[in-house]
């Protein structure tokens, strides 16, 4: 009886000293936080060693994200008085910080599990907590069981669970925990049409004949560019011949993942071949989470070399940076790896890093992605919010839209593999993430001159199943959908979703140097660094005129920027047993550099060259 009395006396005191909304955590029952079905192609391989360590990332809610989003749209809208008034790093961090109640509750939970403050690494905004723990401890924390999963086709391994739980009192204070349910296979968006024989054996005989062809914008381009795409071809095609950037404080970045190494010797060979004035210039390498950049020619990465050669070749001498991020799944089940980020999706590791930089590159190009449906919704939302933070700070983020049309790039209904992984096994178009995030600019691919949708692979495009259509797309996407015959692909796509891509550029027959040899390569991995380089050139003009960087591009591209883009209306992006969507303004907007200079800066002359405005009209259509 006396003990009951003591509890009654102490209870009011305990309620006063514990954080609001908190009760002793050890006594709280776990409730399921997230459950997923393992995506097609993943099978259980076995149990991991109990002492294998993982970097467990705990995401706390960002209750004021809607306020950040409001700021982002205001500073990115060319018709708003705040256009270009980007936020500072500190201002962004204040807007995404969790409530103190969430911090207190999660801290108490972790303390009850034996963690001290020095065991935790917190993001500057305190919205992420990272703890290195053995698998056995993670299983205790999340009331779950981890397995090693194997991808049947690729042989990749991942350490994952399909369900995890949290104590009931911390549910509302934790948005997600990873690595848990994320089965994505972050991969380069590069066409499989990669010529593995040396360039000289294929097309070394192609030479300039003096003949030209007209691009969609009306400019003349060397006819040889229909066989080989070079720096000169792209400068001609997008009306940037003779422009040399010179502004201070401009910068461009390329992201590298999955042990894709950018080779300096290959870059010099590329410069000697296509950009002689850039020979002996190089790029800054920033290691993220211990990422390497092996300079052996045998280790040269086709994706990394393609990205740096064309992005830095087109934008030279703007300050270039290559980010090499460690964290390459798969988990190797027979090796005991040290604690680290090897189980996390590498772009989440990169996002944490880049958001901590005081001055990240003003334009950043990424040629990697996952199938959207393999990314848990909470994970996709959170990563997308981090891209919004970069945009609010004046950084332009561009992602490749993918190389498999509306899903798998297969137009044959008998062999297509666009099957949902929600247990219903329905056929549905599969967009790419992060390209489907509305806060990044998604870049599709074209080929030939005049340009059409690329046909050696299918440029990724369609509609997100996760993200609603943003307001800046309402006019164009509504017009596009209204142009389709009634019932077109009913049930196969989300007509209310964010449409991708936003823009397109050349994406095939790019001449690159890899491992000391010249090759032709294609994919939206080629289009994305190309478009990014032209954005960096536009930033150069703005900075030189005393204007801020462009930042989040999409609101401008869908409004005033339309006049500096040209549309094509030929081609399709097949997949999932269908011809996909025939192109229209949503999918194939192409840049025209000099008209964009007028629109973005008001500067009408470059040296002695008069700029001509080119206004194009959208004529979307589809064939079934």
Automatic annotation (TrEMBL):
Its EC number is 3.4.14.10. CDD domains: Peptidases_S53 (cd04056), Pro-peptidase_S53 (cd11377). It comes from the Eukaryota. The active site is at residues 303, 307, 525. GO terms for molecular function: metal ion binding; serine-type endopeptidase activity; tripeptidyl-peptidase activity. Its main location: secreted. Residues 1-22 form the signal peptide. It catalyses: Release of an N-terminal tripeptide from a polypeptide. Keywords: Calcium, Glycoprotein, Hydrolase, Metal-binding, Protease, Secreted, Serine protease, Signal, Virulence, Zymogen. GO terms for cellular component: extracellular region. InterPro entries: Peptidase_S8/S53_dom_sf, S53_propep, Sedolisin_dom, Tripeptidyl-peptidase_I. It is found in: Secreted, Extracellular space. One of its GO terms (biological process) is proteolysis. SUPFAM superfamilies: Protease propeptides/inhibitors (SSF54897), Subtilisin-like (SSF52743). SMART domains: Pro-kuma_activ (SM00944). Pfam families: Pro-kuma_activ. Residues 228-608 form the Peptidase S53 domain. Its cofactor is Ca(2+). Secreted tripeptidyl-peptidase which degrades proteins at acidic pHs and is involved in virulence. PANTHER family: PROTEASE S8 TRIPEPTIDYL PEPTIDASE I CLN2 (PTHR14218), TRIPEPTIDYL-PEPTIDASE 1 (PTHR14218:SF15). This is tripeptidyl-peptidase II.
């Amino acid at each position: 009886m006396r003990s009951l009395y003591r509890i009654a006396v102490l209870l009011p005191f305990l309620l006063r000293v514990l954080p609001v909304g908190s009760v002793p955590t050890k006594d709280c029952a776990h409730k399921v936080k997230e459950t997923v079905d393992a995506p097609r192609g993943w099978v259980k391989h076995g149990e991991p060693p109990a002492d294998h360590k993982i970097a467990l990332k705990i995401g706390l809610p960002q209750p004021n994200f809607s306020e950040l989003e409001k700021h982002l749209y205001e500073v990115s809208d060319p018709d708003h008085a705040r256009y270009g008034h980007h936020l500072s790093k500190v201002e962004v961090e204040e807007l995404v910080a969790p409530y103190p109640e969430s911090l207190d509750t999660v801290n108490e939970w972790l303390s009850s599990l034996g963690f001290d403050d020095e065991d935790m690494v917190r993001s500057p905004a305190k919205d992420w907590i990272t703890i290195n723990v053995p698998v056995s401890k993670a299983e205790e924390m999340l009331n779950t069981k981890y397995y090693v999963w194997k991808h049947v086709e690729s042989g990749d391994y991942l350490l994952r669970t399909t369900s995890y739980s949290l104590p009931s009192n911390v549910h509302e204070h934790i948005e997600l925990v990873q690595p848990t349910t994320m089965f994505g296979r972050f991969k380069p968006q590069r066409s499989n049409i990669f010529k593995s024989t040396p360039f000289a054996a294929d097309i070394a005989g192609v030479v300039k004949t003096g003949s030209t062809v007209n691009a969609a914008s009306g400019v003349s381009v060397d006819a040889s560019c229909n066989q080989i795409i070079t720096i000169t071809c792209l400068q001609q095609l997008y009306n940037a011949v003779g422009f040399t950037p010179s502004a201070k404080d401009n910068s461009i970045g390329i992201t590298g993942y999955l042990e894709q190494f950018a080779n300096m010797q290959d870059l010099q060979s590329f410069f000697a071949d296509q950009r002689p004035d850039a020979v002996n210039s190089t790029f800054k390498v920033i290691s993220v989470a211990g990422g390497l950049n092996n300079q052996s020619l045998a280790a040269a990465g086709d994706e990394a070399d393609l990205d740096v050669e064309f992005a830095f070749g087109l934008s030279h001498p703007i300050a270039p940076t290559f980010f090499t991020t460690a964290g390459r799944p798969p988990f190797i089940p027979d090796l005991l790896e040290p604690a680290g980020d090897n189980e996390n999706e590498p772009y989440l590791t990169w996002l944490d890093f880049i958001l901590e930089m005081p001055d990240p590159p003003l334009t950043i190009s990424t040629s990697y992605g996952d199938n959207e449906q393999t990314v848990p919704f909470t994970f996709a939302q959170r990563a997308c919010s981090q891209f919004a933070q970069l945009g609010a700070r004046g950084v332009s983020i561009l992602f490749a839209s993918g190389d498999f049309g509306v899903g798998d790039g297969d137009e044959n209904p008998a062999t297509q593999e666009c099957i949902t992984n929600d247990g219903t096994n329905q056929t549905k178009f599969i967009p790419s993430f992060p390209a489907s995030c509305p806060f990044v600019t998604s870049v599709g691919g074209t080929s030939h001159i005049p340009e059409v949708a690329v046909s050696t692979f299918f440029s990724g495009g369609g509609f997100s199943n996760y993200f609603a259509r943003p307001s800046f797309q309402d006019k164009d996407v509504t017009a596009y959908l209204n142009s389709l015959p009634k019932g077109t692909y009913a049930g196969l796509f989300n007509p209310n979703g964010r449409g991708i891509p936003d823009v397109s550029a050349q994406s095939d027959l790019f001449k690159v140097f890899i491992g000391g040899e010249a090759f032709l390569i294609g994919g939206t991995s080629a289009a994305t660094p190309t478009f990014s380089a032209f954005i960096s050139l536009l930033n150069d003009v703005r900075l030189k005129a005393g204007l801020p960087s462009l930042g989040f591009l999409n609101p401008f591209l869908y409004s005033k920027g339309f006049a500096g883009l040209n549309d094509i209306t030929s081609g399709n992006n097949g997949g999932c047993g269908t011809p996909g969507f025939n192109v229209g303004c949503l999918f194939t907007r192409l840049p025209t550099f000099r008209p964009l200079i007028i629109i973005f800066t008001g500067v009408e002359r470059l040296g002695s060259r008069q700029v001509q405005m080119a206004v194009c009209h959208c004529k979307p259509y589809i064939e079934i």
